[in-house]
Structures are given as C-alpha cells and as structure tokens.
Amino acid sequence: MVRYLAMFTTPDDPEAFDKHYREVHLPLIRSLPGLRRVTLSRSPVPVRGEAYYLVTALEWDDMTALKEAFASPAGVATGDDVANLAGPDQVRSMIFETEDVEL
Predict the structure, then answer these.
(1) Which of 33, 40, 51, 38 is nearest to 18 (CA)?
(2) Are 52 and 6 in contact (CB under 8 A)?
(3) What per-residue confidence (pLDDT) applies to 51?
(4) Contacts 24+ apart (CB under 8 A), 25-32
(5) What is the CATH number of the domain that holds 41?
(6) What's the rounded Cα separation, in Å, for the pair 62 and 98?
(7) What is the tally of structural domains in the chain?
(8) Dihedral angle of Cα 39, 44, 50, 53, to the nearest 10 degrees
(9) 39 in a domain, yes or no?
C-alpha cells in the first residue's frame, strides 16, 4: 500500500475553503484512477508544532498505481486545483509506502 498525505494549514477563509474542497476538489480526487481509499481528518491533534486544518490521506495499491494516477488527466487537474485551495506555504504533502507489522 502507498499513501499520499496532504496537510493544509488554516485557510484565510475557512468557509470558502470548505465549499471549494467539498464541491470541486473532492470530486477531482474521487476521479483519480486506481484510488482505493480517501480519509479526511478535520480534528488532528498535534503532538508537536501547530495543528493542521485538514489532513487528507489517499491510498493506492502501490507506487506505480499512484504515479499513474497523478500522471493521468484527472491527476493533473487535481494537482492544479490545489492552488485554488491554498498557497504553497499553506499545504504540505508526502508520499510513503506502508507495511503491516504483526503485533
């Protein structure tokens, strides 16, 4: 499994951000090929540092599927739309592969 995280700081206009995210950005995310799961957190509690306003996690089967998704027209449109939500200093993202560990 591979996961893409997008972490947004508190927007200048939370109401406009939420409306755009719900009506425009989330439908773009849903159109990403091979996407297995989307989770949102609006109440992350920081252990250190400042809290994020919204954290979104997207999951694919593997890195190849993620790369193909973001290279697709839907992926390009989704990436381009981030600028409509937040400036470059208002969003952080990361990609990481996961593995299950037995307890």
Answers:
(1) 40
(2) no
(3) 86
(4) 25/78, 25/81, 25/82, 25/84, 25/85, 28/74, 28/77, 28/78, 28/81, 29/56, 29/58, 29/78, 31/74, 31/77, 31/78, 32/58, 32/69, 32/70, 32/72, 32/74, 32/75, 32/78
(5) 3.30.70.100
(6) 9
(7) 1
(8) 60
(9) yes
Q: Which two tokens stand for residue 3?
A: 């996961």
Q: What is the tens place of the pLDDT at every residue in 18-74?
A: 999 999 999 999 999 999 999 999 878 888 888 899 999 999 999 999 999 999 999
Give the type of residue at 55: V
Structure tokens at 81: 């739309």
Both tokens assigned to 55: 């954290």
Residue corresponding to tokens 């193909």: 68
Strand partners, 56: 6, 40
